[in-house]
Design brief:
Blueprint (H helix, E strand, L loop, with lengths): L3 E3 L6 E10 L5 E6 L5 E6 L3 E6 L7 E5 L4 E6 L5 E6 L3 E6 L4 E7 L5 E7 L4 E6 L3 E6 L5 E6 L5 E7 L4 E6 L3 E6 L5 E6 L5 E6 L5 E6 L3 E6 L5 E6 L5 E6 L5 E6 L4 E5 L5 E5 L1 H4 L6 E6 L6 E5 L3 E9 L1
Antiparallel strand pairs: 1-2, 2-29, 3-4, 4-5, 5-6, 7-8, 8-9, 9-10, 11-12, 12-13, 13-14, 15-16, 16-17, 17-18, 19-20, 20-21, 21-22, 23-24, 24-25, 25-26, 27-28, 28-29
Length: 314
C-alpha cells in the first residue's frame, strides 16, 4: 500500500496506491484492458505481453514473447484478438482464444507507437516512428491506406466520430488533422515547441487536448483548432493523457516521474502523484490506462513497475 494525498482546491481529491505490479525486466510502454474484468495487459522493452489480475496474488501470465520491443497494445471490440505494435514496424495479431499469433503485418519501417480501432468503419489505424499513418481492414487485415505525413515520429492518434476527423500527434511539433473517411489532410497547426507526444478529444466538450515534449498541455477548440488553454503541466515531457470512465477527471503522465489529475470541466489542476508523497514511480511514467470496469488508474514506466491508483473525491 502507498501513501495518499488531498488537494487544497474546492474539489478535494484523494489518490491512494492500491497495488504495485512487478515482473517486467525492462521499461513498460503499453497498457490495455484485458478480456476478463479485473485484468489488464502490459508490455514493453522485455518483449513480453503479460496478463495481470488486479486481485491475483500470483505472478502475471506471460502469453506472448515477441522478437522486438512492444510500444502499443489494442484489444479488439469483441475481445477475441489483441493487436501488438513493435519496434520493428510490425503489428502482430494474437488470437486470444487460441492463445497464438495469427498474423504479422508490416507496413511501418520503424516502431508502431499507436493502434486505434474505428468500430463503425471496421478499420484499424496505426502510427509509426517512420512518420506514416496506416489504415487496415479489420475483417481480413488488408492494407487500405498508408501515407507519410511527417518527417518525424507520429506518436499518437485520436478519432472524433462526430467531426469525422483524426488528429495526429507529430514529432515536428505539429498536429495534423485528417478526414476520417478519405484521410485527406484537412489542417496542420503548430501545437508545441518540440514533439507532440499525445492527443485526445474530450469526451463531452469541444476540446482537443495535446501533451508535448515541452512539458505543456494545450487545449484547442475542436472545431476551429484555436488555442483555448496553455498549461505548464509538468517539468519534462508529457507522454500520456487519459480520461476517467465517469469523465470527471483526466490524468497526465510525464518523464518528470509524476502523474497529475485534472478537473475535466475547467482543466484545473487537482493533485500530483509522486514518489515522495504517494509512493509513485522513481523514473519516467510512460503510459496510463483508466480501467473502465474497476475505475482504477494504472500507470507504468521506466522503473519496470505498474501501479494501480484509486482516485476518489472526498
Amino acid at each position: 500500500m502507498g501513501g495518499s494525498l488531498k488537494s487544497n482546491l474546492k474539489v478535494l481529491i484523494q489518490a491512494e496506491r492500491v497495488r504495485v505490479f512487478s515482473g517486467h525486466d525492462a521499461p513498460v510502454y503499453a497498457l490495455e484492458e484485458s478480456v476478463q474484468s479485473g485484468h489488464f495487459f502490459s508490455a514493453g522493452g522485455d518483449k513480453l505481453v503479460a496478463d495481470w489480475g488486479l486481485l491475483s496474488e500470483t505472478e502475471a501470465r506471460g502469453f506472448v514473447n515477441a522478437r522486438y520491443t512492444i510500444y502499443s497494445l489494442k484489444l479488439s471490440p469483441d475481445k477475441r484478438q489483441l493487436l501488438i505494435g513493435d519496434s520493428n514496424g510490425s503489428m502482430l495479431v494474437v488470437d486470444l482464444q487460441q492463445g497464438k499469433q495469427t498474423r504479422n503485418l508490416r507496413v511501418h519501417t520503424k516502431s508502431v507507437f499507436s493502434i486505434m480501432i474505428d468500430e463503425n468503419a471496421n478499420r484499424i489505424f496505426t502510427t509509426g516512428a517512420d512518420g506514416f499513418f496506416a489504415v487496415w481492414n479489420f475483417d481480413d487485415f488488408s492494407l487500405v491506406f498508408s501515407q507519410k505525413y511527417c518527417d518525424e515520429k507520429i506518436r499518437s492518434a485520436t478519432l472524433h466520430k462526430d467531426l469525422g476527423e483524426i488528429a495526429l500527434a507529430c514529432g515536428d511539433g505539429q498536429i495534423r488533422i485528417l478526414d476520417a473517411e478519405t484521410f485527406v489532410l484537412k489542417n496542420t497547426f503548430s501545437a508545441h515547441e518540440m514533439s507532440v507526444n499525445t492527443v485526445c478529444y474530450h469526451p463531452f466538450k469541444p476540446w482537443l487536448i495535446s501533451g508535448g515534449r515541452d512539458a505543456m498541455i494545450r487545449i484547442w477548440n475542436a472545431n476551429d483548432k484555436k488555442l483555448l488553454h496553455s498549461i505548464p503541466a509538468h517539468n519534462y515531457a508529457v507522454y500520456s493523457i487519459v480520461f476517467s470512465p465517469d469523465c470527471k477527471f483526466f490524468a497526465s503522465a510525464s518523464r518528470d516521474k509524476t502523474i497529475k489529475i485534472w478537473d475535466s470541466e475547467q482543466a484545473d489542476f487537482l493533485i500530483r502523484i509522486d514518489l515522495e508523497k504517494c509512493g509513485g514511480h522513481i523514473h519516467s511514467v510512460n503510459t496510463l490506462l483508466w480501467l473502465k470496469s474497476d475505475n482504477l488508474l494504472l500507470s507504468a514506466g521506466d522503473d519496470r513497475k505498474i501501479m494501480a491508483w484509486k482516485i476518489m473525491q472526498s
